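> tool_call: predict_assembly(chains=two)
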Amino acid sequence: RKEVEQDPGPFNVPEGATVAFNCTYSNSASQSFFWYRQDCRKEPKLLMSVYSSGNEDGRFTAQLNRASQYISLLIRDSKLSDSATYLCVTAGSNYQLIWGAGTKLIIKP
Amino acid sequence: DAGITQSPRHKVTETGTPVTLRCHQTENHRYMYWYRQDPGHGLRLIHYSYGVKDTDKGEVSDGYSVSRSKTEDFLLTLESATSSQTSVYFCAISEVGQTSYEQYFGPGTRLTVT
């Protein structure tokens, strides 16, 4: 079992719709969680950290479910510019990050 | 954007040849990382550095070595390139080593080993 698992997609979503995807992790001791965004052939960039209480940043909402060991990302009113691959990241051992392979999102006009 | 550059940006090399990739930062961050990214896999850590001349192995360090003689430069060397090392290599930096802190990435180097 991979330490961080994501549905690779692609998720094809019409512009303006709401989309959500989850990521499961195996390290129950992990304390840090993130969503990074990666555009095609570009470097990853931090989208948002995920806090225990959940957090929201504009159209983006991240949630953490420790009991079931997953984090989620919800995007409301999706824009064409949201098309990207979303990478789920958790803390591993020795201060290293463990990365999921990503979920590809395609927003269609 | 964080000041991180990687060179070269693209390279094609033959099996068995040595290859060195360079990461240069202007942010004066203490921590630097080398990752590789392959289809179907998340980013995988190769080596990281927590200061000048201080480095440690990551998850997939076999076949790779690193050096950091200055704060701003972190070099990744493939002593004898193999086709399995064909990948996209990303350098990253962070101000603090703990995982709660953001990592900033360079633009990547696409390496093809024929």
